[in-house]
Amino acid sequence: MAGLTDIPLPPELGPEAECVIVLWYKEPGEAFREGETLVEVQTGKVAYEVAAPFSGTLSEIRVGRGETAVTGQTIATAVREPAIV
Predict the structure, then answer these.
(1) CB under 8 Å to 32, separation ≥6 — which residues?
(2) What beta strand segments (E) does 1-85 contain?
């Protein structure tokens, strides 16, 4: 059984940037592919689409819609899809 992997708010949004979660594109239990838009966040007056860093299945959303997170903070967890060798 694969373990859970954290999905952090990416550092590309700025060092210690505060972001508000605008919209989750996936719900817990739904699969996603690496590079697919997972969540939309807003920092200041700019909205960003955050892509999934790997393929897997969303397990838990830790920062919900309308809540604030900072870059590097875990916003969700997922079960990572096994790599095909």
Answers:
(1) 26, 38, 52, 55, 56, 57, 58, 78
(2) 4-8, 18-24, 31-32, 37-43, 46-51, 56-61, 68-70, 74-80
Residue 10 lies in a domain: yes
**Residue type at 61 in one-letter notation:** I
Instruction: Give yes or no for a contact between 41 and 9, defined as CB atoms under 8 angstroms apart.
Output: yes
Reported as a single tens digit per residue, the pLDDT across 49-74 is 999 999 999 999 999 999 999 999 99
Whether the predicted model's global pTM rises above the 0.70 cut: yes
Total domain count for the chain? 1
The domain that holds 55 is classified in CATH as: 2.40.50.100
